[in-house]
Amino acid sequence: MRRPFVRALARPLVLAAAAAAIPLVSAAPAAPAVADGIVVGGFPIEAADSPWTVALSSRDRFGGMRSGQFCGAVAVGRTTVLTAAHCVGEDVLGSPPGEVGDLKVIAGRTDLRSAEGQEIPVRETWVNPEYDGISNAGDFAVLTLAEKLPENAVIGMAAAGDPAYAADTRATVYGWGDVTGAGDYPYSLRAARMRVLSDALCEEAYPGGADGTYRADVMLCAGERVGGRDACQGDSGGPLVAQGRLIGLVSWGSGCGRPGSPGVYTRVSDVIQKLGWERAT
Ligand code: 4AZ
């Protein structure tokens, strides 16, 4: 399962909606490692407990059953949201992001069937021009919102050299993505606890192949050595948080929760540097 949501999307959302509506249909987990989902291997959490985790939505493109959710995103300013570049590519959206009339960020909504929280139109989308869809390097985009999010919805970003990036640090990923790797999209927000893994582990797992190439300067490796806890399709663009600070954006990986195939995240310190945000943090 290569990349993001993206490719899979046109097909999956329909399946996703169906699967979510009849949760018991695929009762047997594909493998023990992915028995219980996020995010695979996760647990339910309230949006109020991670208010910076927001959903990226277009009902026109993805249908209304799950509020049009198709990717995750994270608020780093009251009108500034980060997501994955691959989430706002033309292959996902069907047209350039500026031409998607109902592209919105949804904040404060745990259950995508509900109307809780806020829906805020995206006023401007800036996609990293250096994003490389082959290696997946530079997988980030900046969304500017038409209205302000609440002040408590903003999370701080970990700058280069922050100890939160060290291997073995505990980290949590948040999202509404596939909970099994088989296209089971939940209605409610989930989180999964894991650890930052060494660059060596991802370099070994992803030396360069169809899924992507791990590059330690712009990517971050996280999960569990034994597999089982991971982000998955639909979580892309969402936050990986350690020590209360944003360290990663869900980007890619080979499958979900598989031993030996950790999740790969966009390294937030590189985002800060590329955007010239050093002094703002
Ligand atoms: C995806 O397809 C995707 N297990 C996101 C994250 C991971 C794999 C795939 C990491 O969006």
TrEMBL record:
Gene3D superfamilies: Trypsin-like serine proteases (2.40.10.10)
Cell location: Secreted
Protein's UniProt name: Serine protease
Matches recorded under Pfam families: Trypsin
Database matches in InterPro entries: Peptidase_S1_PA, Peptidase_S1_PA_chymotrypsin, Peptidase_S1A, Serine_Proteases_S1, Trypsin_dom, TRYPSIN_HIS, TRYPSIN_SER
Recorded GO CC terms: extracellular space
SUPFAM superfamilies the UniProt entry points to: Trypsin-like serine proteases (SSF50494)
Keyword flag Protease: yes
Ranges for domain Peptidase S1: 39-281
UniProt cross-references to PANTHER family, sorted A to Z: SRCR DOMAIN-CONTAINING PROTEIN, TRYPSIN-RELATED
CDD domains: Tryp_SPc
Single GO MF annotation: serine-type endopeptidase activity
Example GO biological process: proteolysis
UniProt keyword annotations, A-Z: Disulfide bond, Hydrolase, Protease, Secreted, Serine protease, Signal
Signal peptide start-end: 1-27
